[in-house]
Amino acid sequence: MKTKLTTTLATVLILFAALVSTPAAEPKPVYSATAASDVLAAACQQAAKESKLVFLKSGYPECSWCRVFDKFHGKPEVQKIIGKYYVVAVIDWEDMPDGKAVFGQYAKIGAPSWVILTPDKKVIIDSYAPSGNVGFPGAPDETKYYLAALKKATPAITADELQILSDQIQKAMQK
Questions:
Q1: Which residues pair with 78 in a beta bridge?
Q2: How far apart are CA 93 and CA 40, in angstroms?
Q3: What pTM value is reported for the model?
Q4: What's residue 126's pLDDT?
Q5: How many C-alpha atoms does 19 have within 13 Å on its Cβ side?
Q6: Exposure pattern of 117-131 as b/e (b: 16+ CB <10 Å)?
Q7: Contacts of 1 by beta carbon, 8 Å cutoff, 6+ apart
Q8: Could you tell me if 84 and 155 are in contact, meaning their C-beta atoms sit under 8 angstroms apart?
Q9: Helix 159-174 × helix 76-85 angle, to 10°
Q10: Pairwise CA distance, residues 66 & 85, whole Å
């Protein structure tokens, strides 16, 4: 009896410890019905004001490649270059009620996928290379496509800036 009680108590303590040490899932954000439209409109307005283009990304929070792409864009070295030419906007097509419909007007939805737009919402280029969606450009051929897309959209981007972006992509892949 004592052994059975000890085993039961140990099991309860292990389960309790697991519950306490396991972080709770973050609550899903609550978006308005027009959240994606609003994000895009604000980005286009800012891009027009600053004489930039819009780099529109799509994905969803649970997507590991989306998180890698967001982390890549969050690096100061990358922000300095991308921010010089683009206003970056992100559409969460899983949780934004109009996310799929809005992003789908400009490019195929992927996880992640992206499209470069003018402030008046004209498509310059998207993440779909002839071989398929580049999304986060981790493979060498994807990096080549991504950098060529940036050069096509923004001819003023320099070779040095493209090299820095390429180096940061490689660093992101090593982690």
A1: none
A2: 13
A3: 0.82
A4: 96
A5: 6
A6: bebeeeeebbbbbee
A7: none
A8: no
A9: 140
A10: 21
Predicted local distance difference test score (pLDDT) of residue 171: 87
pLDDT along the chain (175 residues), means of 10: 44 37 59 94 98 96 90 93 97 94 94 96 96 92 96 97 94 78
- CB contact at 8 A, 134 and 70: no
Q: Which residues pair with 56 in a beta bridge?
A: 89, 115
The CA distance from 97 to 84, in Å, is 31
CA distances from 37 to 28, 41, 69, 72, 108 (A): 19, 6, 22, 24, 16
Nearest to 120, CA basis, from 50, 49, 58, 44 = 44
Q: What gap in Å lies between CA 14 and CA 131, rounded to an integer?
A: 49
Cα–Cα distance measured from residue 73 to residue 112, given in angstroms and rounded to the nearest whole number? 13
pLDDT at residue 25, rounded to an integer: 55
Q: What angle do CA 57, 143, 102 make, to 5 degrees?
A: 15
Of 59, 100, 80, residue with least CA distance to 164: 80
H or E element at residue 115: strand 113-117
Q: Residues 115, 82: contact at Cβ < 8 Å?
A: no
CA distance 72 to 78: 7
| Full set of structural domains in the chain with CATH | 28-174 (3.40.30.10)
